């Protein structure tokens, strides 16, 4: 057991070299012991971050063999069913990478799995941030960066999915083209510029390739860095609890604890992706065959993050408007435009604007560093759950052929049910979530007011049995007492009954009404008693105040 | 990783016996005393127990040795396992991936146990400071900005400012203009792109000046009408000479269906059929997937992408799904050797809709009347 008394030469030498030149010491002094709060839900975003690093590593490996070319070649590799078949160089090289390069199949499968985990990690991280209100001031900018990252990740996934040029990826590409060409006014222009002429042309793979390996990941990398820097500068939010308030951070220091934990977590993510890439086959492109616009494999499914777009395309009713009839003023294929743009528009725009809308409705311009428990802002939580229900219906319906097959329901009925469910389920989700939130708030109020069931049953002199309640643990109580009423816009009506400026017009009145509904304390924590002067009454129970035990 | 706060030991005296339905002993809802001590130097740093730590160190070492062994195995497998056949590729994948997974897992587990069992538990507190800078700093920045703006003369010198703005406007357009030639091989002005969507290769002739034959997709065999004679039969068909031209196929692929004469309903243009054989565009009018599934008993054509369903016996009318228009019918006939040929191009553009398309069906009907 020897402890380090002085910095070894191997570290002090290079360190002073660097400090002499860039003065890194003062930065390190401030940041080496930076405190990071601990909560399992704070680790969700790290899944996305580490998956991104793994994507860069495996993706670089893939580029060494992959040929992003649509030139036609005849396949003569080891996969017998395709020998002699004409295919694009892209597909042939993806097959070569899979079958003839040691570790190539592993890297390809890991790359695909990491992509799924990347988007999934972003989604759950985003839900965590949303439901705990961690996007509030001062973190709105980081939230908007996050929404941009999610959008870019979808674009990155779409371009990558199309590269192997197999039959399945071609189906996705064809749908992309069908959507692009449907856009009003600019559709044919965009399509012809993207594909270098008519679909499919010979350019789109190499163009998607440069988007996929250079432009989009470059922007993602820049935004991820900004995301990290902002998180670092603003310090992480923390859950309410003992000794934690809006003015401090409680947790473990970056060096050595957090650093090592993060390293271990990266390795875990890496191990899970490697395990999936080894044991769970994904995208077996050799089965699908080369792309041909005349063919399709039944049961074609996109990657999961595109499922909601696929579902909304499937749900849509056949609307198409010809402005000016045969005079061709313009054709609006609403059965493509609406499902392709509206759900994604609602979700992404809604996400990006939510912090600002909430601020407008609550009038809350304070800094927030304590995360909300989802129950304590019931309307926000209900809106989030309604959005999940909306997205979830679309996502499920993206696989309605599989649903119909597995559950033996008529395919058409899955669509009819989905058309109703996409409007009804969000409403139900909203109402149910709202009630659950209030119920949980009541349960908190009961614990604060009455204490916790101790498991000790006592018989009173007159024969009644009661269970002794004890006050909750300090940290639990502090966690619950971290609750704060959702602020409301102050509508101070003056003596003449006139509301303040900005609250008079229809928009101002709407704002005031929304604020009243959204904000306020629904279930006060100390309401369990019906009076204020508690504390003596029940706090002592379990430690001696026997005759005052509470019965339920 | 929150358990450093929730690892609570339940005092015996408080809960004599557990009652079913109540929190178990040790549940954090019931308060408890912290049974640990802070380090002497720094409050909030709880040092681990040395006896436990020594045990944990052995486990960590074991984890790291697993990583060592797995990494060596990876290297060995890379060298000895070839990828010269499918079976060997599968084996190599399993061996390399398995050892990589194990190596990463060992390292990750080892570090986690190291952090949790060998390092102190931390409960350190740091102050937060408001993000906004104080008024004095803001004032200084504002002053400096104004000073610099005035020193630069950008505000005072109108001509400088206006010409600079004027100069940057066209400069911003350059990158946009540079993208104009993205449509490599189209000899058309951009405003005429859509005209190419109106035509398919079915409207062209062979070198001998004859109409194109319908050939079976995949084999390239021409189809003798007399041989395609079992009602309910279906073929995927491509134009002769364009079997490998993906651009042509993306618009011109057909499905060919043989009906009994009495099955054909009013939606089908009978002049465009031959002996109960009807040809429809296979490209779905929704977003362009090949509508490849056919149900013989109901005559339904189904697109597997978004389940648009068309009634093949009735002019491929839409009966379900998001597609808004029927699949266009191709006029077919037979040549002197009895092979199926196209009479000409589709009357309307096949495939998904686009802005410039207009109501081509109505237009075709009107032209048909006037002709």
TrEMBL record, chain A:
Cofactor field: heme
UniProt membrane topology term: Multi-pass membrane protein
Pfam short name (any one): Cytochrom_B_N_2
Keyword terms: Cell membrane, Electron transport, Heme, Iron, Membrane, Metal-binding, Respiratory chain, Translocase, Transmembrane, Transmembrane helix, Transport
Gene Ontology BP, a term: respiratory electron transport chain
Residue ranges, annotated region (Disordered): 524-552
Cellular compartment(s): Cell membrane
PROSITE patterns from the UniProt entry: CYTB_NTER (PS51002)
EC number, UniProt record: 7.1.1.8
Cellular component per GO, a single term: plasma membrane
Transmembrane portions of the chain: 40-66, 111-131, 143-163, 208-233, 254-282, 336-357, 378-397, 417-437
Residues in Cytochrome b/b6 N-terminal region profile domain copies: 14-240
Superkingdom assignment: Bacteria
Chemical reaction(s) catalysed: a quinol + 2 Fe(III)-[cytochrome c](out) = a quinone + 2 Fe(II)-[cytochrome c](out) + 2 H(+)(out)
One term of GO molecular function: oxidoreductase activity
Broad enzyme group: translocase
Name by which UniProt lists this protein: Cytochrome bc1 complex cytochrome b subunit
Source organism: Nonomuraea soli
UniProtKB/TrEMBL annotation, chain B:
UniProt subcellular location: Cell membrane
Cofactor: [2Fe-2S] cluster
Topology in membrane: Multi-pass membrane protein
Transmembrane region(s): 59-81, 93-115
Domain Rieske: 272-341
Function: Iron-sulfur subunit of the cytochrome bc1 complex, an essential component of the respiratory electron transport chain required for ATP synthesis. The bc1 complex catalyzes the oxidation of menaquinol and the reduction of cytochrome c in the respiratory chain. The bc1 complex operates through a Q-cycle mechanism that couples electron transfer to generation of the proton gradient that drives ATP synthesis.
This protein's name: Cytochrome bc1 complex Rieske iron-sulfur subunit
Organism listed in the record: Nonomuraea soli
């Amino acid at each position: 057991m020897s402890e380090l008394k002085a910095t070894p030469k191997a570290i002090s030498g290079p360190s002073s070299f660097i400090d002499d030149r860039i003065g890194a010491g003062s930065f390190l002094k401030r940041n080496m012991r930076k405190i990071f709060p601990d909560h399992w839900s704070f680790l969700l975003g790290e899944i996305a971050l580490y998956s991104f690093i793994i994507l860069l590593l495996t993706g670089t490996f893939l580029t060494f063999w992959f040929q992003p070319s649509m030139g036609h070649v005849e396949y003569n590799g080891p996969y017998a069913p395709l020998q002699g078949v004409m295919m694009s160089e892209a597909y042939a090289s993806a097959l070569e990478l899979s079958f003839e390069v040691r570790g190539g199949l592993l890297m390809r499968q890991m790359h695909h799995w990491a992509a799924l985990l990347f988007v999934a990690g972003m989604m759950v991280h985003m839900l965590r941030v949303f439901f705990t209100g961690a996007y509030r001031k001062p973190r709105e900018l980081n939230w908007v960066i996050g929404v941009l990252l999610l959008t870019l990740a979808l674009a990155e996934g779409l371009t990558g999915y199309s590269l192997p040029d197999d039959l399945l990826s071609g189906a996705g590409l064809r749908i992309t083209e069908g959507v692009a060409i449907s856009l009003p006014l600019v559709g044919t222009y965009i399509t012809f510029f993207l594909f270098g002429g008519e679909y499919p042309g010979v350019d789109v793979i190499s163009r998607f390739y440069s988007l996929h390996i250079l432009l989009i990941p470059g922007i993602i990398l820049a935004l991820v860095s900004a995301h990290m820097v902002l998180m670092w500068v603003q310090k992480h939010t923390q859950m309410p609890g003992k000794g934690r308030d809006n003015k401090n951070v409680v947790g473990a220091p970056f060096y050595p604890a957090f650093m090592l934990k993060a390293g271990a977590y990266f390795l875990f993510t890496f191990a899970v992706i490697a395990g999936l890439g080894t044991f769970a086959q994904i995208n077996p492109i050799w089965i699908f065959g080369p792309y041909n616009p005349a063919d399709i494999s039944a049961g074609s499914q996109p990657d999961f993050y595109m499922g909601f777009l696929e579902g909304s395309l499937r749900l849509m009713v056949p609307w198409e408007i010809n402005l000016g009839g045969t005079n061709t003023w313009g054709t609006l294929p609403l059965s493509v435009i609406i499902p392709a743009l509206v759900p994604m528009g609602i979700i992404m725009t809604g996400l990006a604007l939510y912090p600002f809308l909430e601020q407008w409705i609550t009038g809350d311009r304070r800094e927030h560093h304590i995360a909300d428990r989802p129950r304590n802002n019931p309307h926000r939580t209900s809106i989030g759950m309604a959005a999940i229900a909306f997205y979830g219906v679309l996502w499920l319906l993206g696989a309605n052929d599989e649903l119909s097959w597995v559950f033996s329901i008529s395919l058409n009925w899955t669509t009819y049910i989905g058309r109703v469910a996409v409007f009804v389920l969000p409403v139900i989700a909203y109402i149910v979530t709202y009630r659950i939130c209030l119920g949980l708030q009541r349960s908190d109020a009961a614990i604060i007011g009455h204490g916790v069931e101790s498991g000790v049953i006592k018989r009173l002199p007159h024969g009644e049995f009661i269970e002794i309640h004890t006050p909750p643990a300090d940290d639990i109580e502090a966690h619950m007492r971290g609750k704060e009423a959702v602020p409301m816009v102050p509508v101070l009506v003056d003596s003449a009954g006139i509301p303040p400026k900005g609250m008079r017009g229809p928009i101002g009145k709407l704002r005031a009404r929304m604020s009243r509904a959204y904000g306020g304390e629904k279930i006060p924590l100390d309401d369990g008693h019906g009076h204020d002067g508690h504390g003596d009454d029940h706090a002592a129970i379990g430690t001696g105040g026997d005759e005052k035990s509470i019965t339920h | 990783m929150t358990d450093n706060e929730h690892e609570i030991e339940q005092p015996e005296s408080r809960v004599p016996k557990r009652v079913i339905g109540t929190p178990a002993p040790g549940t954090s809802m019931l308060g408890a005393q912290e049974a640990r001590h802070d380090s002497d130097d720094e409050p909030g740093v709880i040092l681990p127990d040395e006896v436990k730590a020594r045990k944990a160190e052995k486990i960590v070492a074991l984890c790291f040795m697993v990583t060592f062994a797995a990494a060596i195995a990876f290297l060995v497998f890379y060298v000895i396992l070839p990828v010269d056949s499918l079976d060997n590729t599968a084996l190599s994948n399993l061996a390399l991936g398995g050892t990589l997974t194990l190596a990463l897992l060992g390292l990750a587990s080892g570090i986690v146990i190291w952090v949790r069992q060998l390092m102190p538990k931390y409960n350190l507190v740091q102050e937060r400071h408001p993000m906004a800078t104080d008024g004095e700093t803001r004032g200084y920045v504002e002053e400096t900005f104004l000073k610099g703006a005035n020193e630069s003369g950008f505000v005072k010198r109108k001509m400088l400012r206006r010409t600079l703005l004027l100069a940057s406007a066209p400069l911003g357009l350059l990158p946009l203009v540079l993208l104009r030639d993205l449509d490599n091989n189209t000899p058309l002005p951009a405003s005429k792109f859509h005209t190419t969507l109106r035509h398919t290769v079915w409207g062209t002739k062979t070198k001998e000046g004859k109409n194109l034959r319908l050939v079976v997709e995949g084999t390239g065999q021409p189809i003798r009408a007399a041989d395609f004679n079992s009602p309910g039969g279906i073929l995927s068909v491509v134009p002769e000479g364009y079997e490998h031209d993906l651009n042509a196929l993306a618009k011109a692929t057909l499905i060919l269906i043989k009906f009994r004469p009495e099955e054909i309903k009013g939606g089908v243009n009978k002049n465009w059929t031959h002996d109960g054989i009807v040809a429809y565009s296979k490209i779905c009018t929704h977003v362009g997937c090949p509508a490849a599934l056919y149900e013989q008993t109901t005559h339904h054509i189904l697109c597997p992408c978004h389940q648009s369903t068309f009634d093949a016996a009735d002019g491929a009318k839409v009966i379900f799904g998001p597609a808004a228009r029927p699949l266009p019918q191709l006029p077919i006939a037979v040549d002197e050797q009895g092979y199926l040929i196209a009479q000409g191009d589709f009357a309307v553009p096949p495939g998904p809709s686009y802005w410039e398309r207009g109501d081509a069906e109505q237009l075709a009907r009107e032209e048909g009347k006037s002709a």
